[in-house]
Structure formats: structure tokens, C-alpha cells
Design a protein that fits this description.
238 residues; mainly alpha; 73% helix; 0% strand
Length: 238
Amino acid sequence: DFLFFWGAVFLVTTTLVAFLKKENQELIPAKEETKGITDTYKLLFSIIKMPAVLTFCLLILTSKVGFSAADAVTGLKLVEEGVPKEHLALLAVPMVPLQIILPLVISKYTAGPQPLNTFYKAMPYRLLLGLEFAFLVWWAPKVKHEGGFPIYYYAVVVLSYALHQITLYSMYVAIMAFNAKVSDPLIGGTYMTLLNTVSNLGGNWPSTVALWLVDPLTVKECAGPQGHSCATAAAAEV
């Protein structure tokens, strides 16, 4: 029902825009140079070969390794420990207004000459919240009872998620502000797309590796025949 409703809203609004919105016929001189596909890629390679850009790309490709496991695995582990998926989904609702307000608040601090300062300041707190998430997973079976989980446990989870959102958005908005600041206005769209793509990759590859490593790094004990291993998924199923 949720997907159907928003799918209908999306179709109606885009159709209205298509029929009712008229293009501005006045020719406005473009401030940004437009190039063909080949020229654009040549330009991208010339940008990425610059020492400062190369160093920055290495920074943002590796900066999120420290919190990849906490970001990617915490929710799955909480479900594994018995926290109902629908309860976790409901806990995401209070985060929505926070996600709307945070960029507005943080942008005041990233508008200055050194937007990456906010990024650096948020990083240690986000790393510490990784330990907090590990504690939440460890704590889950300790407080679980027949009726589920106590209210105070959910309150701690919501608070932890809220603090996590603050650090996450502080880093995200700071990187976006920095990318906008350093991009050459003549090729701003191309320049920013390159930096934002590298930034997105910097968040995605560590999460993928973290998910891939969950099984090999998880210690399991088997109740059954002597000497039987349950290190792999197939062996655990047996």
C-alpha cells in the first residue's frame, strides 16, 4: 500500500509537470562549458591526475572504513538477536524530521572557508558510536524477555541512532560543501559529479566488504556431534 500510494503520487506529479510546465524560451548564455562524451572523460582523467585531487580521492575512498561494519551490520544483527523488523522500521520514523533539520543546521558550520573541519570533528564521535552499536547488539539478548524488549532498550536504540545521524550528516554535508567549493565553475557539474561519485564509492565498498566478512569473522558453537564445525553457512545449516 505504501509503495502503491507513493508510486501513484510520483506518476501524477511528474505527469502534471510534463503537461503544465513550459520551458523558458529566452536564450540564456551558459556559464558552464558543455562538452561531448569523449571530451568530458578526457577532462575527468586530467582532473583526477592532479596531485591534490588524487590525495583527496584516496582520503574519501578510505575515510569510512572505520564505521562500515557498524553502519551495514548493526540492523541485521539486531534482527538476528530477536528485535522485530517492524519495530526497527518504526524507529526510523523519528529520524525523518531529524534528517530534514540536520543539513539546515550543519550548513551554517560548513559555509566558511574550511568546510572539512566539520568532517574531521565528527569522525571520532562516529567511530565511538560504532562501539555503542556493538554494545546494543551484545545487550539485546540480555534484556530480551518473553514479551519482547523493554521500552528503555528501544529508547537507547533511538537515541543512539539519532546521535549517529548527527555525525553522519555532519560528515556528508561537509564533504558536499567542500566539493562545491573546490569545483571549477567552468566545469562545475563534471567536477562535482566526479568528487561525489568517489565519495559515494568510499561509503559503498567498505559496507560491502563488511557484509562479506560477517560470516568468516562470526564465532559459532555447535551443539551436536563432536568435532563438527559450523564455521560456514552450509555447515551451520547441517
